[in-house]
TrEMBL record, chains A, B, C, D:
It comes from Winogradskyella pulchriflava. It catalyses: 5-O-(1-carboxyvinyl)-3-phosphoshikimate = chorismate + phosphate. Reduced FMN (FMNH(2)). Its cofactor is FMNH2. Homotetramer. It is an enzyme of class 4 (lyase). This is Chorismate synthase. The gene is aroC.
Length: 357, 357, 357, 357
């Protein structure tokens, strides 16, 4: 397996299992001369960490990142940035009961079949704990991309959707509630829904919308590495994601060309933006926006049938401290992956741009 | 721009503009010893080619592929397969009227801003003509993957959807109608819709569903190169695609974990398949299915405002012979890209598999 | 096999066998806006082509390149440049006698064992004919790198060496003789040597020295992709190459640090240049120079024992029209590969350079 | 800079500066199911570490490696192996005197010009300390490649060469002396030479020969990723290396084809092996052997002129504890890089081999 690197020029390689000694990664290709704000990095980790509110898992992990290289006197040097987050909360015995059991809709079965050996402790490599490393790298990418505004928010939980288009939302409100929805009325309904689901020992899915603003014209590498294709891959690589759409998305598939076309203004901007800020795989300077679908967390605190490695169906009781809804903690992960794509494509754009000649 | 290669071990690199001398590509990494069925390859090209029916563009291109290397006495040699499709229908004058004009919702503007120079003839590199090279490579990948069944079909045109789940459809009927929908009743409604739209000089969007059967367990490279993430990128790299979902997709985001989990049978298969054949980014042996959203073609045969390179809004009249709905011709392209992903991941799986030791 | 692409941002993918319909390649990542000099490209091909003088193979191949894409009105567009050279001289019957025979010190045996199938006609993919595609790409890279001076020349044939250091040679004389050695006295001895060897039906090895001047400071990507490491790989990928050294090379391994260190001038240049223009894998602005060793061509026009596919030793008589010494025709190939490395590293440098911000 | 990853399927990414908190790396693509011998890994580190004998630097670093992931109950899991070596001996003040000084024939100047910022403490990223991470990964690759014998040894120091061909040497004697030369007589001369040089406060270069035995037929990816080309790049990426030759190498460039050709035995082996075990870039089953040239260490304990960042020539006095000859400590590094190349190409071979079908 060599699928643990993301990016072409701004590259992140991650390592680590949920219950190993540590997780971490290497960022290779981060430009030199960036004065890092370490508080901002830790703040992104805190947005993702467990135990931050009543509606997420009550596990406690401080998730403190240590940087080992690539930074000198607080400034990036252009050499690889190695970092580690030690796992302080490895309750391995919590998982002894699933040692030989494949939980439904988890990766236990496929990892075992693929690798012939498996770290059964809490999902090991397949655990969303790995995404903490993405958040660290994304936080650094955001500092490199300081001109670009990256905002993700919870746009639905179960059947509860934010009605307003993103243009009518105040992104400064995203952090004002625990579900990370900038529309207070919708947020309250969503939070109530998650609490109700949690009481049932059940879980629920949701969607996240992400908006990228002030993106320069010209980012994207046709034909295979179109900007939206790479954003799609980045989002689909996040645990529990089942779908991605940008601009008009699946609704666009119901429309007529005469309705769907975005007419130009004289400055090259467009009157509408059903295209979602990308034409032919290249950014056109308008807002880039997309929506990501998350399935409900597979671990429910109920009795369920599972399969054991001897091929027997066994009843299991979901235990442990799990998220009833992954969406609020996934908001910073979506932003991090978007930042990694934009950082990578900004570097790709730099090398080809006529402006530099 | 170096985004014209797809794949890690089974690699396709394409070249060519819609109105240049030729398009083509290089397939590097195709295993040796595959006896090729050249008729099958040409047949896939014929499914994609213009002029094949009343509901697609009436342009005529024979789209005959010539192979220059990598094949000896009809068998692949393991060396790169170079191929070319000559463009026989370059009516460049058709495009003189848009030389300095950026058409709405086309890539004219972004290509010009990105590269500072532009082949304005019919979209050049951004034209879907490039996908003919993908179909050639996909047809070869299919022959390498002969055990896997790959079937795509039109699942909606505008508001007209196939009601039945794919399990109730007879894939052998896909080619029995020009819209490529195996459900005859729906097909007829879709065809009528496209003809009505065409009369209006308008265009319409649609969706394609693709089903991959008999895929071995263990394909996929966590964490970033998950099988469904690469399938998503592959589909999003196709012209006019706005969204991708697999398994339960966006509907899954409305569900509860207790409803969504796929319970096991003793043989490791699952009673339901909301997961869509992938767990943790790795195939589990169940059907892989996904849905792709296509926007309506941007070229409408109506008067529209456009922008010229001097920054003036000018009225233009859509001309030429264009598709009122891209979906039927996109069916073989979706299959081709799926085949390329599966071929690549099959080779990745080979090198890591314990079974080979 | 997927080893037919060279470069990270300025990428060349080649295809083609010596006796197939055509060879060619795709250049992906060439910047847009370069006005190409097609005569200069053909001139490089002519320097490499067979039949150009009495001391090279008398095969006749016009080696005319056709460009299919990536160029519009004579200017690069930033899209992939697809090109083809048709093989006009496929005397396949010349090779029927070696259909089942593995020639000594050729790639017949290893290709057959690796791929299980083999295009036996004249070495197929392992033939140096493939390098014509490299020369086309290198010629375009040279035009992108117009500020850099790239000069290679024959520095030895057998035991005959150019005595003078390169600084005392007039590179404008390289093309003044058929062996491509700028020192006339040495050139004449080398030419006489090759003619003597040719009479014997034998072949002889030699070395090529290459000098890169006006290279900017800062090219190279530590730690694995050091500039000289990539130059070394590029040269070692050329047929018949057995060794590479840069700067002081193998002689440097005999020296003391106090002798070997290059002391600085105040402008950052150095008084000596045993380093060969690279420090820590990064160009320092001084001349980059290196030497490449070529073995004698394996095909001798003499009786030799060979192995057949049934495991029998059989006597064979070398036939055909072969080079008695590969070095003069390899000079433009060495330059082409150097140009590809410099183009690639120039683009890599662009994206990271603070100067562009 | 994103040049810190080596390999295609068996990938090593390293990070770390000589005087940062730690160095380390991530091995991605190591097959699962390998029971690791941790003592063997530490033993390789001990062969490279400083302070191991009188003729190397007297710095003391325990160089203890910690594994953070990818290993469960002593067995590789197929997930990325993250590891760290903490720097216990960061005497940063030792380097304050060179804060603004570019030492001759070091990378100080080029790093500063390339990145615009520099960790001046002991060379930072350009220090050979980084190679400890390569040795860790190489030690794991060796365990994956247990059937292959990898032996490197010191073949020259200054003008003192081992006269015997490698076939006459007993590799079990390599570790029997501190210079790592299996020929005792030559070893003693080399050791005396290094001690003499050290007394002078000077340094001296040397060469290492490496022999790879029991390599399967068919490793190598023509045309650009030929096995010997990748070995060459791997060796040239090691600090202080100035040249690489394999098989007949530079001597082969003086020979005639009739002398140089390796005639076959009936089993496909060859009577001679001037080819060095590789034909057309693919291993042929014979021994692979190559020679690597190392320049003398640039830090001499003498007065020298240097350049400061203000463009002034200043006198400096080499300080610190440095190697008078890098070759004995480089022996395990050469083996490690050879192991990484063989592991990578073995995986590449697996995926393409017909035998696995």
């Amino acid at each position: 397996m060599a699928g643990n690197t993301f990016g072409k020029l701004f590259k992140l390689t991650t390592f680590g299992e949920s219950h190993g000694a540590a997780i971490g990664g290497v960022i290779d290709g981060c430009p030199s001369g960036i004065k890092l704000d370490f508080e901002a990095i830790q703040n992104e980790l805190d947005r993702r960490k467990p135990g931050q509110s009543k509606i997420v898992t009550q596990r406690k992990e401080p998730d403190t990142v240590e940087f080992y290289s690539g930074i000198f006197e607080g400034v990036t040097t252009g050499t690889p940035i190695g970092f580690v987050i030690h796992n302080t909360n490895q309750k391995s015995k919590d998982y002894s009961h699933i040692k030989d059991v494949y939980r439904p809709s988890h990766a236990d079965y496929t990892y075992d079949k693929k690798y012939g050996v498996r770290d059964y402790r809490g999902g090991g490599r397949s655990s969303a704990r790995e995404t903490a490393s993405r958040v660290v790298a994304g936080a650094i990418a955001k500092q490199f991309l300081s001109a670009i505004k990256i905002n993700a928010f919870t746009s639905s939980v179960g059947e509860i959707f934010v009605e307003k288009p993103y243009q009518e939302l105040d992104f400064s409100k995203i952090e004002s509630n625990v579900i990370r929805c900038p529309d207070e009325a919708s947020a309250n309904k969503m939070i109530a829904k998650v609490q109700e689901i949690k009481k049932q020992g059940d879980t629920i899915g949701g969607t996240i919308t992400c908006v990228l603003q002030n993106v320069a014209v010209g980012l994207g590498e046709p034909v295979f590495d179109k900007l939206h294709a790479e954003l799609g891959k980045a989002m689909l690589s996040i645990n529990a994601v089942k779908g991605f759409e940008y601009g008009s998305g699946f609704c666009g598939a119901k429309m007529k060309g005469s309705e769907h076309n975005d007419l130009f203004n004289e400055d090259g901007s467009t009157k509408t933006n059903l295209s979602g800020g990308v034409q032919g795989g290249i950014s056109n300077g308008m807002d880039i926006y997309f929506r990501v679908a998350f399935k409900p967390v597979a671990t429910v605190i109920q009795k369920q049938d599972a399969l054991n490695s001897s091929g027997e169906i066994v009843e299991m009781q979901g235990k442990g401290r799990h998220d009833p809804c992954v969406v609020p903690r996934a908001v910073p992960i979506v932003e991090a992956m978007a930042a990694l794509v934009l950082a990578d494509y900004t570097l790709l754009r730099r090398q080809e741009s006529q402006n530099w000649d």
